[in-house]
Design goal:
With 361 residues, the protein is an all-alpha fold. It has 16 helices and no strands.
Length: 361
């Protein structure tokens, strides 16, 4: 039975991580692999003040934006370049300012700081996707569809998008078009639930880190392996157009209006919902109520993944890469979130999502 003397220390630990959920006790710098040496003290003198304002998830976001900004700066002159540069540099300024306001300006009401921070990290992430079309046209004018088809033929002996044309029937197309379109609602549901509505905890950091791994690496993957997908590259090899109805119309109009057009490798329609499945499964040991979100997301994820090839958006190797990216996020995010939490506790910092007294309790 813990003594009364331990209570202030226990409260400090809970305050540091913003929630009792997932907190672990850390005894000094050695618990996270550090040591009390001049070099470690010098590192702490730099890292601790910086970490008061910028959490790991923010460093990941700013690093992604910096990379894209450098790519825009290095690109050849084009009418697209000023707009892409403006998006990259303004996004960096917005999120850096949001970090400063949220964690540095303690005189601002905590509710306002929390809203500013959440709006920034979600809004900048969405903006980074919606502006990919011009960005990819600027930094990569070529396409590698031929190589991706060659990989599919080498690995599978057939191009799945062409083989699946035998299922090009209105009821089948409509079923999978519905699930393909549901991707956007699943993303919104998880973002709103975990980031906005649920009490901040380690799971919030885990979700942010994993989501940034998926979208950051995924969107940079588009610049490394640009391609238009089977629907355009193999258009002359299909016997006819996709035989869809209402939901196929929703999908095709949405992609035409906001899609990046060369965003196929890796498949984020594979990686993102599958990452959400891993995230939900990892929460079950803390809260059994996550069983149903995990099962429902798994069902939707399976249908979405199949739809990416049936609807001719992706090659099979894109899907394999998406699987790999989701697994990376599922393995890395919990570990990185735990290590950041432990380090913050060891140096006396609050959790990255702690903006109010309510969140500290």
């Amino acid at each position: 039975m813990p003594s009364a003397r331990a209570e202030p220390r226990d409260k400090a630990i809970v305050d540091a991580c913003g929630s009792e959920d997932g907190c672990s006790v850390v005894e000094g710098p050695s618990a996270v692999g550090g040591s009390d040496t001049p070099a470690s003290r010098a590192r702490s003198a730099i890292l601790v003040p910086l970490a008061r304002l910028v959490a790991l998830q923010d460093a990941m976001m700013l690093a992604y934006l910096a990379i894209t900004g450098i790519m825009v700066w290095a690109a050849k002159e084009s009418p697209l370049k000023p707009g892409c540069a403006r998006v990259a540099y303004v996004s960096i300024a917005i999120h850096a300012t949001a970090c400063f306001v949220a964690r540095g300006l303690t005189g601002v009401p905590s509710r306002v700081r929390g809203v500013i921070y959440r709006a920034s990290i979600v809004g900048v992430l969405i903006s980074s996707y919606l502006t990919l079309r011009n960005f990819l046209q600027l930094v990569r004018t070529d396409a590698l569809d031929d190589r991706l088809v060659h990989v599919d033929l080498t690995l599978f002996g057939v191009e799945p998008a062409l083989w699946l044309e035998r299922f090009n029937r209105p009821p089948i197309i409509e079923w999978f078009s519905f699930f393909y379109f549901s991707y956007f609602f699943i993303c919104a549901a998880y973002m709103l639930t975990v980031v906005w509505f649920m009490r901040p905890a380690r799971r919030t950091t885990e979700f942010a880190i994993g989501t940034l791994i998926v979208f950051g690496i995924g969107q940079l993957g588009y610049t490394a392996v640009p391609g238009y997908g089977p629907i355009k590259h193999l258009a002359d090899q299909f016997r006819g157009p996709i035989a869809g109805g209402f939901f196929w119309g929703c999908v095709s109009r949405t992609v035409a209006a906001g899609g990046a057009m060369k965003d196929i490798f890796p498949s984020l329609h594979t990686a993102t919902p599958l990452w959400f499945v891993f995230f939900a499964l990892h929460q079950i040991h803390r809260d059994r109520r996550w069983r149903w979100p995990a099962l429902v997301t798994l069902f939707f994820s399976a249908n979405i993944i199949f739809s990416t090839m049936l609807l001719r958006w992706h090659y099979a190797i894109d899907v394999v890469a998406g699987f790999s990216l989701a697994i990376l996020a599922g393995v890395a995010a919990p570990r990185l979130a735990a290590r950041e939490e432990a380090w913050r506790q060891s140096v006396g910092l609050e959790g990255p999502w702690t903006f109010s007294a309510r969140e500290r309790r």
